Amino acid sequence: ENGIDAWLRYAALPCDVQKAASIPAGIVALNDTKTSPVYTAGQELHKGILGILRKDLAVASTPTNGSSITIGTVDAFTLTGGALPELDLKGDGFWLSIKNDSVQIVGQNERGALYGTFQYLSMLAQGNFTEVAYESNPSAPIRWVNQWDNMDDTGTHGSIERGYAGPSIFFAEGLIVEDLTRVSQYAHLMASIGLNGIIVNNVNANVNLLNSTNMAGLGRIADAMRPWGVRMGISLNFDSPRTLGKLTTADPLDEGVIQWWGDIATDLHNHVPDFAGVLVKANSESQPGPLTYNRTLADGANLFARAIKPHGDAIVMFRAFVYDNKINQTNWKADRANAAVDFFRDLDGKFDDNVVVQIKYGPIDFQVREPVSPLFGHLEQTGSVIELQVTQEYLGQQCHLVYLPPLWKTILNFDMKVDNKPSLVRDIVSGERFNQKLAGYAAVVNVGTNTSWLGSHLAMSNFYAYGRLAWEPTSDDVSILEDWTRLTFGSDRTIIDTITKMSMESWPAHENYTGNLGIQSLTDITGPHYGPKPQSQDGNGWGQWTRADANSIGMDRTVWNGTGYSGQYFSEVAAMYEDVETTPDDLLLWFHHVPYTQKLKSGKTVIQHFYDAHYDGAAVAQTFPKQWEAVKGLIDTERYEEVAFRLEYQAGHALVWRDAINDFYFNMSSIKDEQDRVGNHPWRIEAEDMELDGYTVIQVDPFETASGFH
Ligand code: BDP
User: Fold this and answer.
1) What is d(CA 659, CA 614) in angstroms, rounded to the nearest whole number?
2) Last residue of a domain, one of 113, 136, 159
3) Which end is more exposed in the chain, N or C (fewer Cβ atoms within 10 Å of the end residue's Cβ)?
4) 352 catalytic per annotation
5) Closest CA to 299 of 222, 361, 238
6) CA 252 to chain centre
């Protein structure tokens, strides 16, 4: 068990459970075109049932006499005379009806039929043989993955920005790899959780993706993913007309530039007829963009929107992550958190109708806790897509267990109260609140060639849960986790309880040992974003600041005295954050600059809370290796050992975090810990007290912790 099959193992159920299953005698997949998702669904069902129940069912493409599992679109069912109830399916939705001798899996489109099939298989794999009859529709039309894969045309094998599981499955040495087996396996995983699109290259895009060899390569990627209903798109570099096309400008209103992008779009369409769209990072972190040419961001987005418009329903995902990473630290009012609303608020209504704005969940950058980006709510005439991260860039880079759905649900369930009306983020990104046709979800996943996909078996619960939540954001995070666990490791109660307990403890613990009260992840901001480095939080151009000094800490983001950020929310929410008294403790230092001795609602001072929380969080991480021991012998040795190794590492690293942060603030504030733990490390053996008598070079695992990444 090396993790390659993730939650799609189709492991055989115990014999007595297998016997209890009564399923139809054959499979009918109402499309025999080999690249069609319905055909794929038939094959997948065959494979799954063979694995789970050890039954080898025949697959036909036209109705048979015997009892069957029939898969098809509503149209195909209508044509072949299958009786269906009145259905109200949305795009990609499905109807699933399971009765002893007949199972109907009906998609609004081909993709929907495939999703329904995976749902049925998921039930069988969990030994759930209940009869059901229901419709299921996705919450939003856009449910995409972003990969930040580089082309690496200077030689090495496709690296991945903020990827922690080996090199790219898509690129190597400036080209698209020949063998796309992993790519279709990836699409297989995506389809099984209802994801329907992917951007394959880094948002910091390499123009060479658009050369003619790579255009053909993109066609091959799209072909590999199409049978799974996954549509492919790419990130674009705004300057391509200059750097690749040798034009003198990339001005979005220049005729030559418009023509150039039009030709690129035509070319792309020729290779990828069902091209999904383009993702654009512009005028951010030194990337070029329309502002460089004194044009608006909307001009930039519409340039691409018009280029792709003639070729089907492809869309532009324009990122709201626009800011200058050389923020002047001496300007007390400067605040990176203000950027998205400042840039985009006045552009509402100026984007073409095939543009959506992709907004990171918080105003800064995937921190362990952020308030919801206030931009959700300011775009009423343009669809919003929420950007999440499965890759744990700031959250332990998959070397730490952090189950993310509780964080995501905090965001999705937040009420922006736009115009004093209920405005949950999940209803904004479903398109419902502002009546948008295009809206949804994108997650930076960054799988790599490691057989476990993310470099850590347990991290895969985040990927699985991402798809499940994008489909139905009200789903319960614990039951999603339990489904994932049963599918990935089996149904033993001890396994489920152990993984659930650790996972549900993991985000709060991580927040506690890395940075609490809304101060953000106190990590190495200017470098790898890994490990503690509170001293990097100030004096950097990225604007991720704590403004800590000897007496006080926190960013004053109020309107009356600070950067004005809290005023970007709508009245009720703005008023809550404006006032220290009504700001929740977990975001206190995000919004306010307070003395270390400020009392929290718990009665503790800020600094004592800091000390205690870091001890508490690290103490929880200490229990993980022990908790994990409970599953020894209940799961395969390979995955048991690999997870044990990471949990052991996390337990140690949590101590490093705890002591680094606590010592740093003790040093800065000179306020003693009430329990006198901080600065006191009786059990620690300092490096200075050791003697080095030579060293041996070893293969480091996980590789990303090694020098030079090898
Ligand atoms: C930050 C990452 C950086 C990305 C950037 C982005 O550190 O690698 O390029 O976001 O999202 O989180 O564009």
Assistant:
1) 8
2) 136
3) C
4) no
5) 238
6) 31
Task: State yes or no: is 285 an active-site residue.
Answer: yes
Q: For residues 101 and 269, what is the distance between their CA atoms, to the nearest angstrom? A: 44
**Amino acid at position 637, single letter:** T
Which of 321, 389, 391 should be mutated for ligand 1, with most atoms under 8 A from CB?
321
Note whether residue 241 is domain-resident. Answer: yes
- 346 and 292 co-located in one domain: yes
Residue 642 Cα to ligand 1 middle (Å): 28
32 and 116 both lie in a single domain = yes
Q: Are residue 300 and residue 434 in the same domain, yes or no?
A: yes
What the block records as the tokens of 382 is 């343009």
The predicted structure's pLDDT at residue 710:
45
Is 500 part of any domain? no
Q: Whose CA is nearest to atom 13 of ligand 1?
A: 203
Pocket test for ligand 1, best of 149, 160, 161 (most atoms within 8 A of CB): 161
- Regions in the chain scoring below 70 on pLDDT: 155, 700-710
In the chain, the number of structural domains is 3
Which of residues 136, 164, 186 is at a domain's end?
Answer: 136
Dihedral angle sign, alpha carbons of residues 320, 322, 327, 332: negative
Ligand 1 centroid to residue 166 C-alpha, Å: 18
Q: What pLDDT digit, counting tens, does each position of 579-595 carry?
A: 999 999 999 999 999 99
Pocket lining for ligand 1, CB < 6 angstroms: 161-162, 203-204, 281, 321, 365-366, 393
Domain-embedded: residue 391: yes
The whole-angstrom separation of Cα 687 and Cα 579 is 46
Please identify, by atom number, the ligand 1 atom nearest to the C-alpha of residue 360.
Answer: 11
The alpha carbon dihedral of 219, 225, 227, 232 has a sign of negative
Give residue-wise pLDDT tens across range 49-68: 999 999 999 999 999 888 99
Which tens digits make up the pLDDT trace of 506-536?
999 999 999 999 999 999 988 899 999 999 9
Whether 393 sits among the annotated catalytic residues: the reply is yes
Note whether 98 and 148 are same-domain residues. no
Q: Is 665 exposed, middle or buried (0-12, 13-18, 19+ CB in 10 A)?
A: buried
Which of 152, 387, 393, 483 is catalytic? The answer is 393
Cα separation, 475 vs 702, whole angstroms:
33
* ipTM attached to this prediction: 0.98
Backbone phi, then psi, for 231, in 5-degree steps?
Answer: -95, 145
For the chain, how big is the Rg over CA atoms in Å? 26
Residue nearest to atom 1 of ligand 1 (CA): 365
Pairing of strands 171-172, 175-176: antiparallel
Q: Which residue has the tokens 């003395």?
A: 595
The answer on 131 and 157 residing in a single domain is no
Q: Residue 432 is encoded by which pair of tokens?
A: 């419902």
Do 288 and 245 share a structural domain? yes
Q: Say yes or no: 130 and 159 in one domain.
A: no
Which are the contacts of 653, defined by CB distance < 8 A and separation ≥ 6?
Answer: 396, 399, 400, 531, 621
Q: Which domain holds residue 623?
A: 514-669
- DSSP E strand boundaries for 381-531: 383-389, 440-444
